[in-house]
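Let us practice reading a record.
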Amino acid sequence: MTASYPLTNGLPIPNDFPIENYEKISSLVRSKIDLTSDTNRSQYSFFSASWKGFLYRFLACTEHDEKYRQSVLPVGKKYSPYERYVVEQELFDFLVNGLSAIECLCCALCAIGAIEVTQTRQATDNSFLIDREEYIKKITPRTTALNFEKKFPNAPITTSLKNLFEKSSETENAVKYEDWKKIRNYLAHRFQPGRMVPISSTGVSNHDVPESWNLNSLTNEDLENLPNIEFTDTTTASRREWLTKIIRNILSESYIFVNSSPVTSESLAMPLPLEQLSEPLTDGVEG
């Protein structure tokens, strides 16, 4: 890692993370902000905290992916109670952090939308409200997509957000996102599912079929249709590959979006180091 990446320098960034766009977007957003304005300072503070949260949650997801693959047993091997606990906990942490990365990213995009609206002198516009707790609680990937559709209907990032998060979307990525979200919500708020242990026709364990989390037995299958999650060495890897692909696309189009609009400063600002990103801005912070 080089000093040209101040936000991510020294962190365990995986090779497939779009580090350059992550850094560039932060710099561009900061270059738009006149920090003498209380509104601008609030918007930038919210953006920077969400931007940092997005990175941290993605890194945690990546680490739990690795730890899961280290703890999962080959198909057919019998787990001890503790081994089962470890692998299921790593899978849970992977799923929670992975979805949280998407949600924090959308919060950051919501802040970018608020900054863009402010910069185009639409101060009375009610889109992208982030100045009160009641508004912040309502920010979701879906509401972010709807706000971008309302204010920036022709931006490529808007189409991507709609295809991924809008309720009516039936794209393959939208289905995968909805499944991930439903599974996370059930695991985080409702239950710890049991395992399905495949049994052969002779009544003994089938060592050729992996065990799985039995989610459908605990939900209304006709309504939720949640897929059972198999415990194999590709369970988290395939999902992280999908997550990274989604993130790379969103960041690529976010950079185009931010870079295509006017900025308030004449030169590109350097982003603040991560340790300052989520701290309240003071008069002593350089622009």
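A brief commentary: The radius of gyration is 21 Å.
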